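User: Fold this, then the next.

Assistant: Folding the first:
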Amino acid sequence: MSSSSNNNGQLVNALDARAQRYHNRALGQVLPNTQPGKRTRSKNQGNDQENQEPRQKRPTPDASQPGPSNRGTPEATIVAADFTKAVIIISDDQKFMQEVENDRVQVIERFETQIPQDCQDEGSWSRQGAEYPGIPLRKICKVDMEANGVDGGEVISSATQDTLALKNRFLDTVKRTIGRELFNREKHLNKEILENPDHPFWMYQDLSFFHSKLAGFSIMYMCLKDQVVAPPRFSYTPVNMFTKSAYNVWKNNAANKRFEELKKVSITGLKKTVCENPSGCVCNQRFAALYDDKATQFLYKADGLLNLKDYNPGESRLVMECSDACGCTINCPNRQLQREHNKALVVYHEDELRGFGLRAAEPIKKGQLITHYAGVIHTISKEDHKNRQISYDAELTMFSKRLVIASDTVGNVARFLGHACSPSAVFMEIYSRKSEEEIVVPQIGVYALKDIKIGEAVTISYWKKDDLRKQKGVTQVRCGCKFGCKSWIK
C-alpha cells in the first residue's frame, strides 16, 4: 500500500507506520488470507464525561439512554435505513409495517448509524472507551498488513486529497487565532498523537470520514485546544425520518395532495419562478393554494441562490421546489434541495460555553443553501418528549404546528448550528418532493443571509427578540455568541 508523497505526507505516514493502525479511509477491500468475522455491537456505553457535548443553551443528550429511534423498544432489531427511499418510518408495530411499507416507504424498528458496507470493521487494534454509532470498533493495524499484505490500493484517495486541501485552507485561515503549536499539531501531527492510537484526535478523524461518506459532502470535526475534549456522539442521518405517530399525523395533510387535487387559484399576480419549464411550473399556484395567507414565499434566482430581498426575520417563510408536476428536470434551478448542494463544513469546538459550532470550510454565497436540518420528526406530546432533549427540536410552523424535527440523538451536521444575535444563516421550511406520488417529507433548509468566508461561523438566531421580551419567570443567561456580547437569552 503506497502513500502520498505531497505535502500531506505527514498524515499519510502517520496512518501508515507510526500510529500502528490503518485508518479505514481506503481499506474498503478485504485483506488477502483473512475471513471477515462476525461483528457484535453492544449498547452505547461510556461515562458521563466521555459523553459530554457542551452546547450553548442546549443541554447535553445522554447518549447512554434510549434515543428517539429506540425509545421503549431497547431490544428492537437494527435494520440499515435505505436513504434512497422517499419515506423512512421508525416503528416496531409489525402490522403497521405490513400496511405501509412499499417501494417508496421503509419501516424500521430502530435506527442507528451503520458502518458503510465498503469499510472494514476487522483488524487486531480495538478502540478503548465509548462506542460511537457508525464508527468501527476495530481497525486494521501495521501488524495485520505485515501478516496479510494488501491487494493494492492507495492510503489516500482522490476524494481524501480534496478533503485535505479543504482542511489545510481552513487551518491556514484560523492559524492566527489558535497559535502555531496547535496549528502544527492539527496539520502535521505531533509525537503524542502519532504514538497514541487512542488519542481523541483519531476519533475526530473517524467522525470526519464516516459522516462525510454518509452526508455526501465534506464534514470535518476539530478541537483545536490544548486539552482535546471528547467528540460529540450521535447517530448520523442525511434524511428526515418519521416516528409512527408523526407519520399518522402528517399523512393526511393537504400538502400531500397532488396538484390537480388542490383548490384552483387565480394565477393573476403570482410571482414567477425560475423553473426551466416556466409555462408548466405549478409551484406558485401550489403555494397560493396551501400557504398564501400564512407565510412569505421565497424564490430561487436563476443561479440557484435564494432571493432574500424581502427577508424579514419576524415573518413566517417557505420555499417551494418543483416536482414532476412542473415538467422540469432534476437540473432545474428550482430543485436545490433535491440536488443536495451542501457546502463543506467544520464542526468546531468553540469553547466551554458554546461547545461545538459550525464553521465554513469553503466560501458560501448569500442566499446559498448550506445544508438542511435532519433528524427524526416527532409529534409535540408529553409521550414524545420523554427521554428526549427538546432543546434540539426545530419547529415546523408552516407544515404542521403539531410536528418538530428532533436531532438530540439522531441528526446531521446542522444540529451544531450555534446562536448569534446577528446570524449568518436562517432556517426556512422547504416544500420539496421529486414525484407527486410521494408523501412530502417536511424539510428545513439552512440558507446564508450573507457571504460567509472560510473559517467564519455559520449561525442562526434561536429566538425572535419579541418572543424573548414576552417571556416571564424564565431564567436567562448571557448570550456569549461573540466577545463582548451583552445580550441575554432564555
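Now the next one, as you asked:
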Amino acid sequence: MALGKRRSERQGEFWVAVTDLSSGPRHVFYEKLNAILAEADFDDFAEELCEPYYADGGRPSTC
C-alpha cells in the first residue's frame, strides 16, 4: 500500500461549550486549603514576593 492513497472520512467538528461541561466532585482537603489560603491573603503575599522577578512590561514577545 502506498502512502497517501487511503481514502479517509473527514472528522466532523467537535465543540463543547464550557457551560455544558459538568464539574466533578471536589475534594474536601483542597476546599479547606483554599479557604485557609484565602483567609491568610496568600495570593497577595506570593505576588509581592515574586514581583521583583517580573519585568515591568510583562514577558517579552516571542515574535
